[in-house]
Amino acid sequence: MAYDFPPPDHQFRMWLALGLNSILMLPFLIWGVGLLRRKGEQYETEPTRRSRWITAILLSFSGLSFLPFILMIPVALLGRLLERYYRNPLPMIALVVLPMLLFCISNWPMFAGANEVAGRSNCRDHLKSLATAFDDYHQSEGHFPPAVFQKDDGTLVSWRVEFADRLNVLPPEYDRGLPWNDAVNRPLLDKKPSVFTCPTDLRIGPSESKQHSSYAMVTGLGTIHQAEPLPGEEFTDGTSTTILLGEAAGLQIPWTEPRDINVDMQPVGINLPGSEPHHSPGWFSSYHEGGAFFTMADGSVQWFGEKIDPKILKALVTPQGGETVELGKIMD
Length: 332
Description:
- The protein is about 35% helix and about 10% strand.
- The chain has a 5-stranded mixed β-sheet, with helices on one face.
- The protein is of the alpha+beta class.
- The chain contains 9 helices and 9 strands.
- The longest helix has 28 residues, at about 115-140.
- It has 2 domains: about 10-110, no CATH class; about 115-330, no CATH class.
């Protein structure tokens, strides 16, 4: 059985928050329509208690439209004020709430997608920060960093650990002289620096996502990361059309593990279906609907859709493949 990647975003948290918003709105409306009175407090206008309850309950459902409950405080005050002047408050309360409700409904797609918009923005920022760090390394070393650093004793260290240290975000308890899965280092998977995390992964992915890297380098025959790292000057295909790293949430790589995308061992594609939920065996995968973000060798961050032609995707991972790629025709 194949499982789609990314899995559907049911947005349970959003609906839970909207339900709570609606519940908090109800007591203000109950008070505003005159159902909560001090003992002996009477008014000349008397809509039936049933009408008041129906009005309050129906208007409380407007909380499901992203209308914040806090706005019901002035509405409730208006209702009580109107009734003090011998007027039925129900029509006026409804007339005040209705335009706000219609505004929220008309902007539902924007409000409902706010989390994803923020997630994509933060994801781009993290990839841009890594691009800057890679550029600094290139400037000082004359070539891009390897995906795996090998210590004198043979210990393999992931580029993520190396750059976490360079960015001063590596947990101080981490011992780079020991393997990533040593008993000393393994507990530090929960202390993953945020720069290796796309917020959408944490929102939609499994609980283990807090330990997994959202990003991975491209390795394999013909890529930037071969036996010897390449300097940017030798990218005959151009640095702007060569992928340096990209989103790979479906590979579920622990952030300290020296493992990345291997184009020789994995099927080409973005967001390919997996054999298990939250798994994608392809080169790239993200919890964003429709595609993934990539850092190019020139430091730019690009978005490529999951329907991209596999031939073009292959061309984008080779710095010296001799292909010509026009980014403007494939970005969506």
